[in-house]
Backbone:
């Protein structure tokens, strides 16, 4: 096969190169996968400002938000103000196959869309819980945490869909009816995490500081507001080029992240789109859940203050002198 070709008017080059160490896949494998899964991947990317993780030859992976100057004019984009860097960022909108193939040719392996579309007034489209098992723990612990989240959601009259993160954990997505405020969705996410933790505090924790988790699965409620999350069907920069893959709740205990890669995902999908079929209808967040969440400190902010308090206490005690 030729090491280059053209699809949708996009020149695809160096197709026989390995993607990254331990990938077990070439750039052609990545592009063939993205192309074949595009009808499922594009709907979860469309009209969402996109960040990608790229791996250039001989370099470490990096996340790219701002489009490079050499980006073709036909790539859709939107400019948004970034408060942290105090500048406008030109984000891509990956709305079509041509753009997706261009990104793949740029060695963009991971696709991380925002939780809102460019119509910000519609609010976040999903409430998201990220379940992260402790270092070295079995994947099943993340699934057990997700089941706690599912129970907490059900107790609040809500339902969500499950997918592997493509790394070591899982994500629970709760589709939302339009028009719900970003702050309220973030608050409800904190409340769901707190309720799930209360269901089994020996197994799950909302502790943002890693040393406070004590071998429990972390219920990460910070995927809210301006955050991004890896898209369903997106590859990951992980050994074997795993894929973030939808999993029915009934099958969650029978899978591992290694089951889903750019080599296996398409065969497992067949002609189906489980991210669509498993996703419940959009829902309104209960007022009680939102109110409870507004009483819970934002985990990242609380952890920052706690870290400063501990550092001050160590200094005052003379620790480390």
Residues:
């Amino acid at each position: 096969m030729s090491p280059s070709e053209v699809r949708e008017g996009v020149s695809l080059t160096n197709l026989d190169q390995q993607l990254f160490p331990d990938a077990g896949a070439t750039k052609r494998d990545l592009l063939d996968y993205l192309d074949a899964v595009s009808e499922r991947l594009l709907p979860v990317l469309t009209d969402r400002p996109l960040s990608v993780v790229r791996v250039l030859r001989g370099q470490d992976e990096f996340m790219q938000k701002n489009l490079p100057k050499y980006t073709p004019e036909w790539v859709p984009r939107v400019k948004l103000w970034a408060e942290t860097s105090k500048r406008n960022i030109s984000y891509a909108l990956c709305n079509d196959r041509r753009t997706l193939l261009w990104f793949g040719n740029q060695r963009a392996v991971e696709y991380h869309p925002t939780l809102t579309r460019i119509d910000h007034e519609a609010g976040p489209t999903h409430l998201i819980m990220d379940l992260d098992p402790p270092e070295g723990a079995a994947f099943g612990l993340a699934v057990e945490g997700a089941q706690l989240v599912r129970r907490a959601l059900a107790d609040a009259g809500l339902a969500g869909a499950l997918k592997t993160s493509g790394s070591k954990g899982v994500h629970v997505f709760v589709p939302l009816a339009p028009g719900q405020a970003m702050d309220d969705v973030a608050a409800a996410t904190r409340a769901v995490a707190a309720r799930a933790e209360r269901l089994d505090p020996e197994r799950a924790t909302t502790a943002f500081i890693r040393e406070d988790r004590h071998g429990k699965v972390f219920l990460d409620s910070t995927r809210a507001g301006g955050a991004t999350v890896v898209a369903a069907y997106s590859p990951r920069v992980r050994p074997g080029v795993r894929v973030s893959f939808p999993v029915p709740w009934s099958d969650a205990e029978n899978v591992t992240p290694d089951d889903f890669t750019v080599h296996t995902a398409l065969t497992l999908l067949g002609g189906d789109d489980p991210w669509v079929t498993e996703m419940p209808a959009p829902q309104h967040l209960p007022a009680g859940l939102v109110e409870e969440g507004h009483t819970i400190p934002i985990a990242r902010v609380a952890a920052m203050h706690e870290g400063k308090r501990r550092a001050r206490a160590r200094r005052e005690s003379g620790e480390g002198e």
In short: The chain has a mean pLDDT of 92. DSSP finds eight helices and 13 strands in the chain.
